[in-house]
Design brief:
The chain has 128 residues and is α+β, with helices and mostly antiparallel strands. Helices cover 30% and strands 31% of the residues. The radius of gyration is 14 Å and the shape is globular. The two termini are 17 Å apart.
Length: 128
């Protein structure tokens, strides 16, 4: 059986606010639509939204967004300008937010690579 791989890469404008969550989800949907029906689409879109949102809130915006779908996995990569790695926030009843990185780690296997221009967060989800 031939292995199929579909990928999309978006670079934000230098000095711009970064990629929006809606743009990233649109790109993800386009890639996932090119594959056989994928039961985990909602999980992928949740991870995309959380990673791009976190880059916007905590790191000056996403500078690169890439999604790659291969047989058995979907990989989401988001780069931003901050070298500070994401961290799981403690539970604080009554305080909104702070659950994104925890959720991403429940849905995907994650990796963080710090580099000269900031960091790249990679989340790999199993495709059913």
């Amino acid at each position: 059986m031939e292995e199929r791989s579909l990928s999309s890469r978006i670079l934000s404008e230098p000095g711009g606010a970064g990629l929006s969550c809606a743009e990233a989800r649109e790109s993800a949907r386009a890639i996932l639509a090119g594959l056989d029906p994928l039961a985990g689409v909602d999980d992928v879109l949740t991870v995309v939204t959380e990673l791009v949102s976190n880059a916007s809130r905590h790191a000056g915006g996403a500078t690169v967004f890439q999604i790659t779908a291969r047989m058995g996995t979907v990989t989401v990569e988001v780069s931003d300008r901050s070298p500070a790695p994401p961290r799981i926030q403690p539970w604080e009843p009554g305080v909104p937010g702070g659950f994104g990185w925890r959720l991403v780690n429940q849905l995907a296997t994650t990796d963080v690579r710090v580099h000269q221009d900031g960091k790249t967060v990679t989340a790999t989800l199993p495709a059913p």
